[in-house]
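Could you join me in thinking about how sequence relates to backbone shape in a protein? We need material for that, and I hope you will provide a protein of your own picking. Once you have written the record down, we can walk along the chain together:

…
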Amino acid sequence: MSQTDFDVIVIGGGPGGYVAALRAAQLKLSVAVVEAQHLGGICLNWGCIPTKALLRASEINHLLHDLPAYGFKADSVSFDFKKIVARSRAVSKQLSAGVAHLLKKAKVPVFDGHGKLDGTLANGRRKVLVSKDGAAPTTLTAQHVILATGARARVLPGLEPDGQFIWSYKEALVPETMPKSLVVIGSGAIGTEFASFYRNMGADVTLVEVAERILPVEDVEISQLARKAFEKQGIRVLTSAKIGTLQKTATGVSIPVTVNGKADTLVAERVISAVGIVGNVEKIGLEGTKIQVDRTHVVTDALCRTGEPGVYAIGDLAGAPWLAHKASHEAVMCVEAIAGRKVHPIDPTKIPGCTYCRPQIASVGYTEAKALEAGYKVRVGRFPLIANGKALAMGEPDGLIKTVFDAQTGELLGAHMIGAEVTEMIQGYVIARTGELTEAELAETIFPHPTISESMHEAVLAAYDGALHF
């Protein structure tokens, strides 16, 4: 008979759930994963990974149409859109299979089905019911249950995905054909990445945002530079927009919008709705427990504990920021706490955020405005990539590195970047933020030449009037 009693049961096999299971196995805890769909969750199957595969293809397409700038010439450049989509799906499939391999190697059983808390206890242990295709549920028990059921796209009335004209991120990842025109509603990371992908592939794209600026969680300067870059690429950007009732036509959609009191109608073949996410709190047995839900997300304390003893929540289910690396870090922290190890709660200001549009955007810590709101006196450094030799050599001179320091202590409070490969470079500032490094320590750090990362050093020096190359 297969094992049904464990130290820990993890409901959900995404970047929070499977990492929690792997860490539990490393710590010699008996652990099982319950997953209803795909190991790897949204991230590997419908989010982070497949979008990056598509974006890579769009970057190549952009470069192929910019060959004369590098001294090359190619005639009749074209692409096979179905192959581009197929490659994206193949990358996701490979990584999902890799997660299955890791769990098997760690001897973690995976129960295929929908996991749900049972309100009753079995000899003082939590019960989880696993159901599949209407069959009688399997009952598992454990001392601890980690909820990692993730989230899904928020659906607004009138913008319900129909699989044809109105898309969520899922439909946008696997279209049958390349649309000639799109309207993307929502300018967070998901919206801007899809806008960037489809524009780089040649579509006419309009990006619509109800807030007064795109990428509203980013530093104002970065947001402004992103808008300028998008418009330079031919993306129409509308902010402070009021959206009317969408109308479907024989060939697409029309959307009435009002911007600064001026009415307009947007016409496109497809609409992508990217207006946020909601937690998957339904049908997982929260009813009758002490678990609280706030705006579709499970409320937890700093160590991921819910109001119900022995039940934890991690990742997107537990709220913002909705990032895979935050989920994975919470997973490790949560399991180590269960195992009795000393852990440190996550400081949200030390979690990096990355957006993989063109140009890339990355940040960590306080924006300049948030630092001032928090009462800090700040020193701000800026360094434009046009003054960086490597960026110029790459043909990627557009961008900015911005640093925010505590004027009294010199501690790095935040860093904000837009430009080529900044999503790879932000980790340097994340380490500095985590280590509470000061401008003096960063200034004394030697950065390699020639690299774009030299701009990070210059942005530190610039905050104290010491930039050498600008």
